[in-house]
Amino acid sequence: MRIGELAALVGVSTRTVRHYHHLGLLPEPERLANGYREYRLRDAVALARVRRLAELGLSLDEIRDVLADDRGRELREVLLELDTDLARQQRAIEVRRERLAALLTEAELHPDSTVSPDMAELLRALPRAPPGSPGSTASCWP
Predict the structure, then answer these.
(1) Angle at which helices 3-10 and 41-55 pack, to 10 degrees?
(2) pTM of the model
(3) Rounded Cα distance, 5 and 8, in Å
(4) Under 8 Å CB-to-CB from 56, ≥6 apart: which residues?
(5) DSSP β-bridge partners for residue 85
(6) pLDDT tens sequence across 31-52
(7) Is residue 70 pLDDT above 70, yes or no?
(8) How far apart, in whole angstroms, are the C-alpha atoms of residue 30 and residue 86?
(9) Residue ranges of the domains in the chain?
(10) Taking Cα atoms as reference points, which of 1, 2, 79, 10 lies closest to residue 47?
(11) Paired strand residues for 31
């Protein structure tokens, strides 16, 4: 099959296939007498594997490392690291969403609402300057 057929079969562009060749992620197939690359089923499997690893979130450098290891141990390690990283990101998003939900429960939102509770407590404890004096602000602190 030709590069366009291979790309369509796996669901990538021909540019992606060429890029993977350039990076060494996909071996260059033999060329026919007319100069066209001749792809086989094994090339489609290799390309599908690269695509799947990329979809999982591995960088192209990580994919190259995984493909270089024949025993698959590296793949397991990389996937475990990816899973750990995704779990950390998910926890961080959950914390952010909890903070956002707390803000959205306030009846009235004002610019000071976005300050963390710890910072708000610290600011409330500061002595207030008389109105109109240097250092006074138009803060909404109670």
Answers:
(1) 40
(2) 0.64
(3) 5
(4) 79, 82
(5) none
(6) 999 999 999 999 999 999 999 9
(7) no
(8) 39
(9) 1-55, 69-106
(10) 10
(11) 37
50 vs 44: CA distance, rounded Å: 10
Residue closest to 39 by CA, chosen among 7, 9, 8, 1: 1
pLDDT digits (tens, 9 = 90+) for 14-27: 999 999 999 999 99
Give the domain 1-55 fold: Multidrug-efflux Transporter Regulator; Chain: A; Domain 2 (1.10.1660)
Q: Are 82 and 58 in contact (CB under 8 A)?
A: yes
Instruction: Judge contact between 54 and 60, C-beta under 8 A.
Output: yes
What digits encode the pLDDT tens for the residues 102-112?
Answer: 888 887 877 66
CA angle, 54 as apex, 53 and 60 as ends, to 5°? 105
CA distances from 46 to 35, 43, 67, 131 (A): 22, 5, 9, 72
Cα-based angle 14, 18, 67 (whole degrees, multiple of 5)? 115
Distance, CA of 72 to CA of 9 (rounded, Å): 25
- Contact 40/29 with Cβ under 8 angstroms? yes
- In whole angstroms, what is the distance from residue 45 CA to residue 48 CA? 5
